[in-house]
Design brief:
Layout (H helix, E strand, L loop, with lengths): L24 H5 L7 H13 L3 H14 L17 H11 L8 H17 L1 H10 L3 H13 L15 H23 L1 H9 L2 H6 L4 H4 L1 H14 L4 H7 L3 H8 L6 H18 L7 H12 L3 H10 L11 H27 L43 H9 L2 H7 L5 H9 L4 H24 L8 H17 L4 H21 L9 H13 L3 H20 L3 H16 L4 H14 L6 H6 L2 H19 L7 H19 L12
Helix pairs in contact: 2-3, 2-4, 3-5, 5-6, 5-8, 6-8, 7-8, 8-9, 8-12, 12-15, 14-15, 15-16, 15-18, 17-18, 17-21, 18-22, 21-22, 22-24, 23-24, 23-25, 24-26, 25-26, 26-27, 26-28, 27-28, 27-30, 28-30, 28-31, 30-31
């Protein structure tokens, strides 16, 4: 549970600046929908299946409107239950309209399916792929490469005819639909490869062909599809010079910054890391993006946001909102790229499940009986010296930390207004990505590269208090506890004196995080943080703190929860009380008695669940193996004789 590997977003809100197909008010008045999504879809199916183009168009626009949402995944909401059969029927009815002879129907179909792919989440995308939405989608995209009537010519918006605007919007909708499907389905990626869609899309990454919004959409799609895709990566190698030219565009408008960031990400994907010859280009654009103070811009936007949720934003506020959405999206992309650059090769660690799982325990080679406690693997720095130098040079740690801050009053104002809810969600996602990067960055840099130890400790303390007092976003909390753990690990390695000044009240802050949070990953992260503090306290003979830490982790190990979380607590206890100088505290808290009571129940669960442990296999089986030996070793220590009540 060390460095993070960031995957692409699993929910795709509509990007800023891209038109989403919606009915006009007049059209909606003429197309009233029955109450309830199930009855609405049934009624809509009738419109899609009649041989009347106008009825079909109205039905497609109704569908787009029905699923136009930024706030939630509609089809995952129990109050909007839709049978799988009905979902498949309306998808199969809509898909053929992607290749209809009428331009407005193609546009409505692409927009409707794109909205459905967002609102329906991953499951809906899987249904769309299995019901072969990809075939007409591919045909539509290929028409833009082969049909003269579909050629896109870049013009200023005011110079475009309605047909040209519609044609461009259809292409944008289709590319975003393709992106959503490829994010969710390996089958969709295989379609992408086998139909050589790379060749179709690459020409539109040239800003002079279809404009910057289209280029960004294509770059987003290729950045996702090229991840671990040798077919696409080999094709992109021929476009390396064009990508470098995109990075070097002298334009700092938000859309261009996003495009340049995506181009940098594509270069990183092509080379499997940051190529030395392009390193300065890549980190210069990253620095341009990260130095934009999006938090301050968000505060300014909140000051122009009406307190009544339905009041209309001023035109100036709308412009600020649109630009800030793009900036935040660019910063999210940048943090995802940087996080993966710093993630190393931990995914290639040994496959513990290949070990013989017919045994009740795994025997691990040990130098002596006490060494069984330390089963951590030491990972050297996994970044090149050139990347290391750039990470330090641009002071990315402080810049990243600044992106994690959000005043509560600002969040409340933005969350209260209909038009600004989405940008708050985007900023929360930015915060989580920044915390993930801080976790990885702190892990790969040496202590001297991280600046003042006092500032690092201050950062650690502030993150802890924000988690307790300020956030209810689980994604942000999990990412911030990752960062909390990484920073503390570094402070402990520095033997930072300020840790010796911690009080029981400071520990209570960490304890409350675990007590108040229902997310198991957060509990595991904070347990590791508390464990690292325990090791530090043990080394410094801070027994008054060590007792509280020991009792708290015992309580975690004893409570009902997933097996892997209990294993995490047991593993942490064995780390904290590994050294002989902890024997007196172990006696005071009746450590051996507690562990002896836990062991048989834990081992029984391991035998029952070992075939379903998945990613937690190594953690659980290692804790299982070490537990018996740890208890045996501590029982034979003269100062570990148990007292009756552990007080």
């Amino acid at each position: 549970m060390g460095k993070s590997k960031v995957k692409k977003a699993k929910q795709r809100p509509s990007p800023a600046g891209i038109i989403t197909v919606k009915c006009t008010e007049v059209e909606l008045d003429n197309c009233k929908m029955p109450t309830g999504i199930e009855s609405s879809l049934s009624s809509l199916l009738d419109q899609l299946q009649v041989p009347d183009s106008e009825e079909n168009l109205c039905g497609l626009r109704r569908l787009a409107e029905m699923f136009f949402t930024e706030d939630k995944t509609i089809l995952d909401d129990p109050t909007h239950s839709v049978s799988r059969d009905l979902q498949q029927r309306f998808i199969r009815s809509v898909a053929p309209f992607l290749v209809d002879s009428r331009s407005d129907i193609r546009n409505a179909a692409a927009g409707a399916l794109r909205n459905v792919s967002i609102a329906g989440g991953l499951d809906m995308c899987e249904i769309m792929v299995s019901d072969d939405v990809v075939t007409p989608l591919v045909a539509l995209l290929q028409k833009y490469a082969t049909d003269d009537s579909m050629i896109i010519q870049h013009k200023n918006t005011e110079e475009q005819t309605p047909i040209e605007k519609e044609k461009l919007d259809t292409l944008l909708q289709a590319i975003h639909l393709l992106l959503n499907l490829c994010e969710s389905s390996e089958t969709a990626v295989k379609y992408f490869n086998s139909n050589n869609l790379l060749a179709v899309l690459l020409r539109f990454m040239d800003v002079s062909v279809g404009g910057v919004d289209l280029a960004v959409s294509v770059a987003q799609c290729l950045h996702t599809v090229s991840d671990d895709n040798s077919t696409v990566l080999s094709g992109l190698q021929n476009s390396e010079e064009e990508l470098v030219k995109l990075i070097m565009i002298e334009n700092s408008e938000p859309s261009y910054l996003h495009l340049r960031t995506l181009a940098a990400g594509l270069l990183v994907n092509i080379h499997g890391g940051v190529p030395v010859k392009y390193l300065n280009y890549i980190f210069n654009i990253f620095y341009k993006v990260i130095e934009i103070d999006s938090q301050n811009e968000l505060c300014n936007l909140s000051s122009e946001t009406p307190l009544e949720k339905e009041d209309v934003l001023s035109s100036d506020a709308v412009i600020k909102l649109e630009k800030l959405l793009i900036i935040i999206e660019a910063q999210i992309t940048m943090f995802e790229i940087l996080t993966n650059i710093c993630s190393g090769e931990e995914d290639d660690m040994m496959d513990f499940e290949s070990l013989n799982d017919s045994d009740d325990e795994i025997d691990i080679e040990l130098n002596n009986s006490k060494d069984c406690i330390d089963v951590s693997v030491s990972h050297p720095l996994t970044i090149s010296s050139h990347v290391h130098e750039a990470l330090v040079k641009f002071n990315l740690l402080q810049h990243s930390y600044n992106k994690t801050k959000l005043p509560l009053n600002v969040a409340d104002i933005l969350n209260n207004h209909t038009d600004t809810k989405n940008i708050l969600k985007k900023f929360q996602r930015l915060r989580s990505r920044a915390f993930h990067f801080i976790n990885n960055l702190t892990s790969v840099l040496e202590p001297d590269d991280l600046g003042s130890p006092d500032n690092l400790f201050k950062m650690w303390s502030e993150i802890g208090h924000v988690i307790v007092n300020g956030d209810n976003d689980v994604e942000v909390i999990e990412a911030s506890t990752n960062a909390l753990r990484a920073i503390l690990t570094k402070l402990v390695s520095m033997q930072y004196p300020g840790l010796s000044q911690m009080t029981q009240s400071d520990l209570e802050v960490l304890f409350r995080i675990v007590q108040n949070c229902k997310d198991n990953n957060v509990c595991a992260n904070v347990t590791q943080v508390i464990g690292a503090l325990g090791v530090f306290c043990a080394n410094k003979n801070l027994n008054f703190l060590l007792k509280d830490i020991g009792r708290f982790i015992i309580a975690i190990a004893e409570r009902q929860g997933p097996l892997w979380l209990i294993a995490e607590a047991l593993d942490t206890l064995m780390d904290v009380f590994a050294e002989d100088n902890t024997d007196n505290v172990a006696q005071e808290i009746a450590l051996v008695s507690h562990l002896s009571a836990i062991a048989p129940v834990f081992k029984k669960k391991v035998r029952a669940e070992r075939k379903t442990l998945g990613d937690h296999y190594a953690l659980v089986t290692t804790a299982n193996s070490n537990l018996t030996r740890f208890i045996s070793y501590k029982k034979n220590r003269p100062n570990c004789i148990q007292i009756s009540n552990g007080k």
